[in-house]
Amino acid sequence: MAYFIFVRFQPKNYDFDSILQDEDIKRLQHQIDSIAKNKEEASNKPKIYPFNPNFLTDYRGYQLGMSSEEIDRMIQFRATDQWVNSVEEFQQVTNVSDSLLKEIQVYFKFPEFAQKQQAKAKTSKAVAHLPKKDLNDATFEELIEIKGIGEVLGKRIIHQRNRLGGYLDLIQLKDVWGLKYEVRQELEQRYFVTTPKEFEKLDINTINVIDLSELPYFDYELAREVINFRQLNQGIDDFDDLAKIQDFPYHKIDRIKLYLVINK
After folding, report:
1. Residues 71, 117: one domain?
2. Range of the domain at 85
3. What is the spatial distance between Cα 51 and Cα 38, in angstroms, rounded to a whole number?
4. Per-residue pLDDT tens for 201-212?
5. pLDDT tens per residue across span 229-248
6. Domain contains 224
7. Which of 24, 113, 167, 209 has the most C-beta neighbours closer than 10 Å?
8. Which of 154, 169, 192 is the last residue of a domain?
9. In a domain, 197, yes or no
């Protein structure tokens, strides 16, 4: 007896999703191959470490993609014992294009002192374009815009101004505790002080103890010591004589002279 088994065959159907998956795999493989190729090319390139462009050599310039003319301009410039202290100055000397400069400037490493000098020059240039203003009219908001002056120092500057009844000279900023010399210089570039027309210095040889005690930098005890010294010496001939008074704040004599005069 024979048995027959019938099997129905159907033509193979290609799923559209499968085709898409195959394309994705090919695309992904192409990306992987590209990354591997780029990595291999990068590894074959000589590595460039950050350097001071003032010491540019022919070989280093070639690595950066500079032309021989551009390299020569830099070398000739250095032969005159001159230095470039910024990316902008490097371009001025070599005449490299903006596009090349953008690529190679990441390798430049200027000395720290040159960077500070350049930053200071930019700040000074920017400040030079700002109109100066009387410090006695400066607002708190304007003061804290200055680098190095925060809310605390801004309040101290205004408090000192109020205590003095207005600044007579920028030198009085020395008395603002915590105000650094560099910040005072910045203030002096932006501000000035106008002495009031009605202000008049008082004669140290005729002033009485009460009026003297009401001046900045004096209290009643110090004023009495000065008057006693004046009487004992039959007058004061020179401000240096005040250094002979015990506990006299002679380190503030430059500010004290703003309020007093010696008439003989």
Report:
1. yes
2. 53-122
3. 25
4. 999 999 999 999
5. 999 999 999 999 999 999 99
6. yes
7. 167
8. 192
9. no
**What span, in angstroms and rounded, lies between the C-alpha atoms of 86 and 92?**
10
Number of domains the chain contains: 3
3-state secondary structure of 235: coil
Coil, strand or helix at 8: coil
The residue written with tokens 């040889």 in the block is 205
State the Cα–Cα distance between residues 41 and 260, nearest whole angstrom.
Answer: 79
| Position 150 in a domain | yes
Q: How far apart are the C-alpha atoms of 37 and 103, rounded to whole Å?
A: 21
Domain presence at residue 40: no
Task: Record the tokens describing residue 3, joined without a space.
Answer: 């048995």
Structure tokens given for 122: 């930019």
* Average confidence score pLDDT of the chain: 83
Residue among 186, 170, 192, 180 at smallest CA distance from 127: 186
Amino acid in position 234: Q
Q: What is the pLDDT of residue 195?
A: 80
CA torsion 49→52→54→59, rounded to 10°? Answer: -10
